[in-house]
Every structure is written in C-alpha cells, then in structure tokens.
Amino acid sequence: MKKIIMIGKEFGRLIVIKRMGRDKNNYPLWQCKCACGNYVLQTVNHLTTGNSKSCGCLRKELQIKRQTTHGKTKTLTYRIWQDMKDRCSNSKHQSFKNYGGRGILVCKRWLKFDNFLKDMGEKPEGLSIDRIKNNRGYYKNNCHWATRNYQSRNKRSNRIITFNGKTQCLSDWARELSLPTVTLWSRIYSYKFPLKKALTSKKYG
Q: What is the mean pLDDT of residues 113-131?
C-alpha cells in the first residue's frame, strides 16, 4: 500500500506537523497548525475531503461575516428604510392604515437594505423618501428624495384647485393668500364655501 506523505502538506489554513496516534475509530491522527496559531488534531479523511480547513476559526469568521451588517444600521438612511418597511407591513405601526392598510407595499428587491441603498443612495440632508405616484408602492422608479414641502404637495389630501385660470395645490393657494392651510381646507371641504368666497375672504374660518 502506497504510503501517504502528510507532513508539510497544507489543507486550507492547516499545515500538517506530525503524526499523533489514532482516534477512537482507530484512524490515524495528525497534528496540524492553523494559520491563526492554534493546533488541532485531524484525520486524513477530514483533511483531504475539505471537511477541515482550519482549527474552527474559519467557520467562526464566516458566521460573523454573515451576521455582520453593512455597517449602516445606525444611519438615518437605514432608519428611513426600516420605517418604510414597517408602515407597509406592520399592522401595529401608527401609520399602517395609510400605507400597508391601503395596499402600499415595498417591492421585493427593497426588502434587502443593500439593494435599497444601491438604488437610492444615502439620504441627502434635509430630504426624505417620497413616492412620485402616491397610490403606488415603494420601488426605484416611483421614489426619490424630496423636501417636506414637496411631499406635502404630493399627499392624497392635498387637492389641486383652479381659480381665475390659475392652477395649483391647496397648500400653495393658502401660502399665496397668507392663510393657514387648514383654514382654506375647512372653507372648501367642510363649510362648502363657493370657491371664489373661499379664496377671496380675508377672515379666518
């Protein structure tokens, strides 16, 4: 039977040092030094089949790598992504009824933060995520970073009003008339003022 030369051979991170008796099944044991400095006993079979490539440090490192995130969990971008998912999938979220509750969902690709970050980039200062088409979900072609003011114009509750040939959203009319938005809203939709009266009256209420 051909003698297997083991001393000096490398298997992954292990290098065979010397013969060290037999295991409980009477298989020869070999002392191996790992690249990390530790020593371990292995059989020829475990070494040659690739079942043993280190003293155990490689497995630990791979496990840590799998468990280690992208390093962004404490960033504002990550928190925005997490909240976006929660309000679309967590029925206990305070805003669920306005998102997941009415069918607004996060696309499958964005369920992984790395993909969201790749598509959207880091959150720019002063901006937050906004859907271009309000009745559609969160996906690359329907989202951008926008100011709060822009987003307020994009809300379902913000109506487009045309008066004297000029068209703009309710919040812009309120700003132009130096009125609280809620006042103008109440005039038109609660008190049912004629549009001319709602937009020309100087009194609040």
A: 92
